Amino acid sequence: MQLAFDCIFYHVRDLETAVRFYTDVLGLSLLTTDSIARLDLDGILVELIPASGEGDFSGHGNARLCLKVADLAKAVDDLKAKGVAVGPVHEVPNGRLASFQDPDTNELVLWQYV
Question: How far apart are CA 92 and CA 63, in angstroms?
């Protein structure tokens, strides 16, 4: 079996709200939109898919979209200035990280390597 990367996707309740968050707040480029939205994150395809019901939001999984930043404090301040609640900064052996959520409570992580 040979595997190839396809995309990262999140279920969302409101496609327009999610697209605004990922483009206006996070700065991703919108590639296309039809029944789903496709965005570019540094050459990685991110898809936003309307949820068919609350069952699509499984909650406490371990998957995260991690976004590498050069200056975590600045990135946190930028998100907060845009009205995004960001959790506390955590020090880990190879860097620092802070979590936040999109409008559908999908968790994302800012990561600064040291």
Answer: 18
Tokens 């999140």 label which residue? 10
String of b and e for 5-16 (b: at least 16 CB within 10 Å)? eeeeebbbeebe
Amino acid residing at 74: K
Q: Which of 100, 78, 74, 97 is nearest to 87 (CA)?
A: 100
Instruction: For CA atoms 43, 9, 85, 72, give the dihedral sign.
Output: negative
Tell me if 11 sits within 8 A of 56, measured CB to CB. yes
At residue 69, what are phi and psi to the nearest 5 degrees? -130, 150
pTM: 0.78
Average pLDDT over all residues of the chain = 88
Domains of the chain: 1-53 (3.10.180.10), 64-114 (3.10.180.10)
Count of CB atoms situated within 10 Å of the CB of 54: 10
Q: What SS3 state is found at 99?
A: strand
